[in-house]
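From the methods appendix. Each design record in this collection lists the tokenized structure first, followed by the designed amino acid sequence. Records were kept in a plain field format so they could be parsed without special tools. The example shown here is representative of the layout used throughout.

RECORD:
FOLD TOKENS (248 positions):
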């Protein structure tokens, strides 16, 4: 049973949006960091308006790219409707940064000193429904004997802790090496600076989508990271959609 907290009743809008649920395409796209929405009563968790719009709150451009790929392929897309600062859907629920008290150079005052009842309420309202639905989508296809693979769509900041990043795209993987390499090589053929397991690596202690929904089920699963300054216009999103769609 979830105990009442100061946040009870705040998460009124659905925790996710599902596009093309009945798609026949094998791909399930996931956008865990699609939104920067925080209920107004939480006052952006004490952040300034500028910080609350930054990459710490969401993956800038990721939802537009995920929607573009979903439309181009007719593929299912599950996207989050709340900010990662409330609870990160791509972190195991007991990871230290599941509900971050600091992200890069920013303290998150509204997450500091959060009691267990409030933490559990966010898990029940936001985390659990998202991952339950993703599991159901995968299970339904598996039971039907259909091919299925999972791709998370993310973006990363071009400057991290003051250091510029020249990488344009990364494909993160653990067991799905052949699938990831196909995507990396396809991007490189366009002359792009793309690499495997950069700018991050998959870790079962700090990642959720790939280890739990992909590797543990024995299906191909990767995360695609595109530098967010390359996703700032509709034309740029369309260009990356055209790069990626044939590779997935």
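DESIGN:
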């Amino acid at each position: 049973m979830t105990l009442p907290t100061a946040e009870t009743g705040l998460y009124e809008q659905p925790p996710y949006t599902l596009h093309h649920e009945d798609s026949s395409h094998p791909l399930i796209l996931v956008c865990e960091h699609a939104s920067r929405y925080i209920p107004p009563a939480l006052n952006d968790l004490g952040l300034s308006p500028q910080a609350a719009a930054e990459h710490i709150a969401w993956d800038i451009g990721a939802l537009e790219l995920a929607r573009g790929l979903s439309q181009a392929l007719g593929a299912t897309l599950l996207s989050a409707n709340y900010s990662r600062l409330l609870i990160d859907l791509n972190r195991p629920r007991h990871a230290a940064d599941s509900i971050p008290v600091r992200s890069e150079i920013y303290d998150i005052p509204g997450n500091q000193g959060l009691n267990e009842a409030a933490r559990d309420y966010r898990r029940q309202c936001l985390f659990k429904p998202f991952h339950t639905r993703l599991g159901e989508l995968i299970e339904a296809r598996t039971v039907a004997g259909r091919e299925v693979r999972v791709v998370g769509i993310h973006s990363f900041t071009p400057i991290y802790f003051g250091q510029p990043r020249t990488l344009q795209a990364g494909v993160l993987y653990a067991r799905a090496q052949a699938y990831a390499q196909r995507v990396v090589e396809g991007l490189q053929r366009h002359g792009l600076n793309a690499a495997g397991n950069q700018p991050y690596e998959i870790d079962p202690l700090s990642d959720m989508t790939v280890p739990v929904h992909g590797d543990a089920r024995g299906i191909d699963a990767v995360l695609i990271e595109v530098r967010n300054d390359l996703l700032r216009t509709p034309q740029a999103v369309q260009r990356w959609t055209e790069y990626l769609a044939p590779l997935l």
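APPENDIX NOTE: The chain has one domain: 16-247.
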